[in-house]
Specification:
Layout: H1 2-9, H2 11-26, H3 29-44, E1 48-49, E2 56-57, H4 64-82, H5 89-102, E3 114-118, E4 125-128, E5 132-136, H6 137-142, H7 146-161, H8 164-186, H9 190-204, H10 208-224, H11 231-249, H12 266-277, H13 289-296, E6 300-301, E7 309-311, E8 314-317, E9 322-325, E10 331-334, E11 339-342, E12 348-355, H14 362-370, E13 377-384, E14 387-398, E15 401-413, E16 416-425, H15 430-441, H16 448-453, E17 457-463, H17 470-474, H18 483-490, E18 504-509
Parallel strand pairs: 3-5
Antiparallel strand pairs: 1-2, 4-5, 6-17, 7-8, 8-9, 10-11, 11-12, 12-16, 13-14, 14-15, 15-16, 17-18
Helix pairs in contact: 1-2, 2-3, 3-8, 5-7, 7-10, 7-11, 8-9, 10-12, 11-12, 11-18
């Protein structure tokens, strides 16, 4: 594979590749080290100046044509995973209109920029090489103006115009090439492991410098489209409040920060974005708060029908046609590939789905596929609301504490098993164990009335009148904990900041 990549860069590298093979077999350590240096010199000579950033960068191992091919391939996967066709067409049209306006003044005109809204509550935006730009429902709910949306879309366009994907890919290939030659020269895997860490950082996501560069470009493109350059800083501040709110939901006092985080600290980004905005003429005045809020009025907030709903101790999934009830004291979290219910005593219930490709019975699936090779106790066949099922127990450890694990496989259809993993501390009372059993036995299909009644939460735009307070508004929201924090994060309101009469705000409707 290395030889193939090198041919695409320069014919000189084909010769070099052959020499590397010879040296790997017969050359001295010194000769191999020299050729490593030569490799870097030849490859780095392929650097070019990016018209968007004005900087020299090494992107030679991924051409624009390859970027387009990679983007098209990955777009199909994203569309299948997140459902780009299930979002309100009016909202999609609005986002595309803003995106196309922002993309009119970019440096790369060889790319057709395409904008999509993903049907997920995650607050996220990203871009693929080839012009594919995505924002999520969750991000649209968090933004508070058209200018903020323009800044986000400009940031993602910036990754494309700066060719960040091509840059990190090319660096990654170069790093792997160096690791191969160096580890051969040293007759050691240590170099490979050390350089492999660097390669992983390059290839896992954008670097901090690339994210900062995209912020700068996003401000530029939003400004050229007529939006206030401060809009990037406004959205980043909202993102910071949202992160603090999410941390409280997860029981943390402040957002976690990792040295290997791919994004710069939000506070640092806000400061830098504010400074950059002040370098622009203050003649761009378009904010577009009213039109933006009108566009997201009625937007689904939180999970949609394709993801399922948490309602108190119940979980409902209308599209997959099932529901179950967690025991008292358990909180349910709906994750992308499983549903998790936990309590304060380190007991956990995990629900997920598995394919039944071999047309097995529930007992055979449990013992021969799911827990193949493990000794299980008390294996028995059962019936759960008319569905064939099997259950068994094993002993294990969770967080270095001994637990009993009960597994339940339910033959939901000829092609699918619905599964429960239930872990609880050893020595739990028989009453508590019975409650856990009842939770797994509560799995059933939804009634027609439940399907009709089960609806997602939605964004509702209201106007503050005289006498309106935060407390009077949040009293109508369908949440029990951290309601005010959620409302303030959604509306970019600082702690204790009052409502303004006549101002529009986002709330959540049942």
């Amino acid at each position: 594979m290395i030889g193939v990549f090198l041919q695409k860069v320069d014919i000189r590298m084909t010769v070099f590749s052959q020499h590397v093979n010879v040296l790997s077999a017969f050359g001295t350590h010194a000769q191999r080290a020299i050729f490593l240096c030569l490799a870097c010199m030849v490859l780095l000579s392929a650097c070019s100046t990016n018209p968007a950033t004005g900087k020299r960068q090494f992107t030679a191992l991924m051409s624009p044509a390859q970027e387009q091919a990679v983007g098209a391939q990955e777009h199909r996967k994203i569309a299948a995973a997140y459902g780009i066709d299930s979002v309100d067409p009016d909202i999609v049209a609005y986002v595309r209109g803003v995106g196309e306006r922002v993309a009119q003044n970019v440096e790369r005109t060889d790319v057709t920029y395409k904008f999509y809204v993903l049907d997920t509550e995650m607050v996220n935006a990203f871009a693929l090489p080839g012009g594919y730009v995505y924002v999520t429902r969750g991000l649209l709910a968090l933004a508070n103006s058209e200018a903020e949306l323009a800044a986000v879309l400009g940031h993602e366009i910036g990754h494309i115009t700066a060719r960040h994907s091509a840059e990190r890919y090319s660096h990654g290939v170069l790093t792997q090439l160096g690791a191969t030659i160096l580890s051969t020269a040293l007759d050691s895997g240590i170099a490979s492991q050390a350089i492999g860490l660097s390669s992983n950082v390059y290839m896992s996501s954008y670097s901090r410098s690339q994210e900062s560069e995209a912020d700068d470009l996003g401000i530029r493109y939003a400004y050229k489209a007529g939006y206030k350059p401060q809009s990037m800083a406004w959205f980043l501040e909202s993102l910071d409040r949202h992160a603090a709110f999410e941390s409280k939901l997860e029981g943390e006092e402040a957002p976690a920060f990792s040295y290997f985080s791919t994004h710069p600290r939000t506070a640092d980004r806000v400061k830098k974005a504010t400074e950059i905005a002040l370098t622009y003429p203050q003649d761009a005045t378009n904010v577009g708060r009213g039109p933006y809020l009108a566009s997201i009025d009625g937007l689904i907030y939180g999970p949609s029908a394709r993801e399922g709903y948490v309602r108190g101790r119940y979980f409902y999934h209308p599209e997959m046609d099932f529901t179950f009830e967690a025991p008292e004291g358990f909180e349910i979290e709906n994750q992308p590939d499983q549903v998790v219910a936990k309590n304060d005593d380190n007991a956990v219930i995990i629900f997920d789905v598995a394919a039944n490709g071999a047309d097995l019975s529930a007992e055979n699936y449990l013992t021969q596929i799911w827990m193949k090779g493990d000794d299980m106790d008390n294996v028995e066949t059962i019936s759960i609301h008319g569905k064939n099922a099997a259950t068994g127990m094993i002993e294990g450890r969770v967080n270095n504490r001994p637990v009993t694990i009960r597994l339940v496989a339910v033959e939901w259809s000829p092609a699918l098993f619905y599964r429960f993993h239930v872990a609880y501390p050893r020595g739990s009372s028989s009453h508590f164990v019975d409650e856990l059993k009842r939770a797994t036995y509560s799995l059933r299909t939804m009634t027609d009335d439940e399907k009709m009644e089960m609806r997602p939460y939605m964004i509702d735009i209201i106007t503050a009148s005289k006498g309106s307070t935060v407390q009077s508004i949040i009293a109508q929201m369908p949440y029990q904990t951290y309601v005010e924090e959620r409302f303030r994060a959604l509306n970019a309101l600082a702690e204790n900041e009052p409502l303004q009469v006549g101002q529009q705000y986002k709330t959540i409707d049942r």
